[in-house]
Amino acid sequence: MRNRMKHRRLSAAARVLTGLLLWSACMVTAGCAPCAVAPPAVSSAWPDVHAPEGKPRFVPMVHLNVLDVLPDPPATRSVENDREYETLQRAVAKASPNDKARARHVQDNMTVFDFRDVVGAWFTPESCPEAAQFFADAGATAKTFSDAAKDKFQRDRPSTRPGFKPLYPERPGSKSYPSGHSTRAMLWAELLAEMYPQQRGALLERGRELGYDRMIGGVHFPSDVYAGRVVGHAVARQLLANPTFHAELNQVKQKMDEAKANAASRATPAVSPRTALR
Known about the structure:
Shape: globular
Low-confidence stretches: 1-18, 21-52
Distance between the termini: 82 Å
Order of helices and strands: HHHHHHHHHHH
Number of strands: 0
CATH architecture: Up-down Bundle
Mean pLDDT: 82
Helix content: 55-70%
CATH topology: Vanadium-containing Chloroperoxidase, domain 1
Number of helices: 11
């Protein structure tokens, strides 16, 4: 039994790391959008690290053991880890001023409204307060599981290597694997794609870009970002399978559609009956 479990664990690691190598080469060498690789399935076990009192309200809807979806990250002194540093250094070096500004924004102020360029200009906290709260709660739930993985794997940040300096400082003592920003960004992308399936491709691309910005900032390794994508996808699948969550998502979608319609009506000039008859 132990040998079979170990074999499954190694197979999962091989799938994830193969996807990572393809993704890193695509992003940094060719300069194209991240490649979408299907994350592995999730189990019905609870996470190793439970949320504290006052845990996010959607956490009980998610039955996920992070060890079932993530392999160990590359070892600190491994060849693979050295290759990740090389990829990270290229990403930081090639970053344009706009890339750097965007990476700083993601580090300090990322919210679901960073998908506004895909969803629409009407998608703002002011016009969609219900969405703001709903996605904040969902993001806090995703963070519970990414934090559980960080506590388990204890991977140091890239800045711990002498001679490597990130563009922006990270929180002292915080761990690296998986990226919490990448986790939340992919969760939000999946939930928005459930609301707007016709924009699924663009939404997922935006979610991947938000995660990739953590590499541009030099605060996460490529495998951290990819692992965050895996956890975010797993949490989203679990939430969307819950009828109570899905009903609330539909209610929030209705409010968002109302905000979109209101914005459209404000943008359309009023036409008097006399003018309409001409």
